[in-house]
Automatic annotation (TrEMBL):
This is Uncharacterized protein. InterPro entries: Trans_hexapeptide_repeat, Trimer_LpxA-like_sf. Keywords: Membrane, Transmembrane, Transmembrane helix. The chain crosses the membrane at residues 127-151, 163-184.
Length: 422
């Protein structure tokens, strides 16, 4: 997806862009995803909300045939973060979809539906978004002029072209990196726990602007290596409470959550794709923002999602593709949480917390994965090392195939962990 739509997420300009691509988008709709494979088959009615990283998949493959399907989302709906809508989807009005849901078919309005307040952006709010976009464009222009000046100086000094380009790139990266952090610290500032209307200034300034800055400078922020200790120092400077020996696989994913609401104890490790959700959209149409607390020696697996108001006890391993919410309860810790939503697994980790055991959890282990003919892996599926898919398997969205699983041929699988479905 081009960078331009990424910068326009959550604005009326992005809705206009999707309309140009053939989508039917109603008024006052807020869309925060670019994962749309066939926008001309998408219809979203007025005042609906589609969260971050939601997959709108109209394309399917079965029996060696590709098929295209329409996706229709009614008015005043809320589709929470990391959900997947696939194949023929019809969602009626006033439907609430929980985070990390896999949706297909017809979803009807529930009897206890809640009428959502007005989600329309006023002219002042639209002008605020436009001003932020223009200011960032101006900042990037100034940075490019600075880099061009450095390159010109290198050319004047007759430095070799590779050295000139490398030096110019380094200046651009470091300057952009520092400006992004300064904007988050001094412009966005500290966030306050509570409920925000999606068309309020508080939401736009504390949440929307934060995501815009990180998206705009994401290439410079990627300069920081995985598991680098500097990440912890930067987050502390931004207001987070982080103890020692904390390792982050993806710094940007952690940075997207308001830093002053982040509390991480010692020896915590996050792996690739681990996501701290910036907010949760409630059934009343409000954005809920609260602190996230991670206990000591916790491990966050690949592509798990931690929702606001979560408090993880010590020595907890969060499995891959797992959803942790405020309702997730594990009082004693020393357990493994897995599933959507998370639940305790019937085994615990050893009480021994020696250095060798902790270090072993941070080692990358490799094992072969066998996938035979005519197998379909749908959106947001994960196959762990050692698994064997024996052919003509269909793995539905948000499915975790466990280590060393043997999937018989001609079977369908769904869930975390994977279970056979008929």
């Amino acid at each position: 997806m081009a960078l331009l739509p990424l910068h326009l997420l959550g604005t009326p300009f992005y809705n206009s862009y999707l309309r140009l691509c053939g989508a039917k988008i109603g008024c006052h709709t807020h869309i925060y995803t670019t994962l749309i494979d066939a926008p001309w088959l998408l219809q979203v009615e007025e005042s609906s909300f589609i969260g971050e990283e939601v997959v709108l998949s109209s394309l399917s493959y079965q029996d060696q045939t590709y098929q295209l399907h329409r996706i229709r989302i009614g008015s005043h709906c809320s589709i929470n973060t990391h959900s997947v809508l696939y194949e023929d989807v019809i969602i009626e009005d006033h439907v609430y979809v929980k985070p990390m849901s896999a949706i297909t078919g017809v979803i009807t309005t529930s009897k206890d539906k809640t009428f959502i307040k007005d989600r329309s952006l006023s002219l002042i709010h639209t002008m605020y978004q436009s001003t932020c976009l223009l200011c960032l464009l101006f900042i990037h222009g100034i940075i490019l002029l600075l880099v061009y000046g450095v390159y010109s100086c290198c050319s004047t000094l007759l430095l070799p072209l590779p050295i000139s380009l490398a030096l110019a790139w380094l200046i651009w990266t470091l300057t952009s990196f520092c400006i992004a952090l300064a904007l988050l610290k001094f412009v966005v500032g500290r966030a306050t726990s509570g409920y925000y209307s999606i068309n309020s200034y508080g939401y736009l300034h504390k949440l929307w602007l934060r995501q815009l800055i990180i998206t705009s400078f994401h290439q410079a922020l990627d300069f920081l290596p995985s598991y680098d200790v500097i990440s912890s120092y930067i987050l502390r400077w931004l207001g987070a409470h982080i103890e020692g020996n904390v390792k982050f696989a993806e710094f940007q994913q952690i940075l997207r959550f308001p830093s002053n609401l982040l509390n991480i104890e010692g020896n915590v490790t996050t792996f690739g794709g681990a996501n701290l959700a910036s907010f949760k959209m409630t059934k009343q149409g409000l954005c809920f923002l609260d602190e996230i607390h991670l206990g000591s020696n916790a491990n966050l697996g690949n592509w798990c999602t931690i929702m606001p108001a979560t408090r993880l006890p010590p020595k907890v391993i969060v499995g891959s593709l797992t959803l942790i919410t405020q309702k997730t309860f594990s009082a004693e810790g020393n357990c493994v949480l897995l599933g959507i939503p998370a639940r305790d697994m019937p085994f615990v980790m050893p009480d021994d917390t020696s250095i060798a055991h902790t270090f072993e959890q941070r080692i990358l282990k490799l094992a072969p994965i066998t996938i035979d003919d005519s197998t379909v892996l749908m959106s947001n599926t994960l196959i762990l090392p050692g698994a064997t898919l024996q052919g003509q398997n269909r793995i539905l969205p948000w499915t975790l195939v466990m280590k060393n699983d043997q999937l018989p041929p001609n079977t369908n699988w769904s869930g975390v962990p994977a279970k056979q479905v008929i």
